[in-house]
Amino acid sequence: MSSSVSSHAPRLTAVLRDSERVTPLELFFDLVFVLALTQCTTLIVGTLTWGAVLKGLLVLGMLWWSWVGYAWLTSTVDPEEGSVRLVMFASMAAFLVAALCVPQAFGSKALLFACAYAVVRIDHIALYLLASRDDPDLRRAVVGLALSSAVGTGLLVIASFTEGALQVGIWGLALVLDAGGPFVSGGEGWTLVPGHFAERHGAIIIIALGESIVAIGAGAKASFGAGVVAAAVLGMVVAAALWWAYFDVVARVAVRRLARAEGRARNEMARDSYSYLHFPMVAGIALVAVGMQRTLTHIAHPLGDVAAAAMLGGAALYLLAHVAFRYRNLHTINRQRLLCAALLLALLPLDYAVRPPSLVTLGVLSAVLSGLVGYEAVRFAEARERVRHAAAPEPAAD
């Protein structure tokens, strides 16, 4: 009896993942990122200046990189076994505190944000060290990650004692050095489960799209008329088009490519395609949400330079990330998405000159994105069906 109880007693250990299924705890963890996204949008909308956009993207970048670390971690170890579950809860609490600090991350809550962020990263490294006890290659990779994480976190602490352009510059340096560490050290040593890893990133795209829906609700007033209804419908069209662009074919091809790769090539593909290139996708969606929220509160008025750039430029950024994503995985260019992104950027000077009502700008965006989706669905119908329903994973053109 005693030996049986002892064998099931909690141990300070980590159990390697043996399933591609995303666990409930991981989904629970991702919910904290919902608040982080909302807070970053709030930071930008608060003043709607170019500086606010830069600060919002910097904060989102740091929080994204911390989330990415746990996506890699939980694709190596089972988060619901051993002591990992408790540490994950502690990390969620720290992540939540950091998210709450976002609106004042460059002001009165700068130091608290840095300290909470440090706890998130320390927990992450500690769990990885625990998981790499019997894997020297993984241990070496984790030590390298710990160094870049320490530098990035330390710079955030230093930045909390500064202000203005110097503070923003230190934040930018912290993000570059922290996120750049794995690129410099290479892809050796890491392990992941392809299906699980891709699904986690797909879920975060859905979370970001959910934030755009929340932005519609936040912008709508208690008493609203036909204009708000029209804006809500157009906003839903935009969100649906962004969802379609990713999940209809792109996500399916990417996960199959990741599964086929092995060793270092797989790790570098995962790092580049998911850890790096999914950030501009999420950032683009967040910027679109800023424009949507502004539209719902100022239906008959122009968006203004910053909000228009956020909405049209954010959608362009999302599509350009898709182009880079495809090129990284297939070494081909998605011309129609590249042209569509260029069109959205070209519309910005026109929007600045004409200054149409924000509802018109949102309508133009919804027309461009739905036109892109419709064109791809018709033009590449055969290839699309093959990718979605047949065993062959290769797309012809989409």
Descriptive overview:
The protein is an all-alpha fold. It has two domains: 10-191; 194-398, I/LWEQ domain (Up-down Bundle). It is built from 16 helices and no strands. Helix 3 packs parallel to helix 5 (110-131). The longest helix is centred in the middle third of the chain and has 26 residues, at 194-219. The protein is globular and about 60 Å long.
SSE diagram, text form:
Blueprint: H1 2-7, H2 24-47, H3 50-73, H4 84-101, H5 110-131, H6 136-159, H7 164-185, H8 194-219, H9 226-247, H10 250-260, H11 263-276, H12 278-297, H13 305-330, H14 335-354, H15 358-379, H16 381-389
Helix pairs in contact: 2-3, 2-4, 2-8, 2-12, 3-5, 3-7, 4-5, 5-6, 6-7, 8-9, 8-10, 8-12, 9-12, 9-15, 10-11, 11-13, 12-13, 13-14, 13-15, 14-15
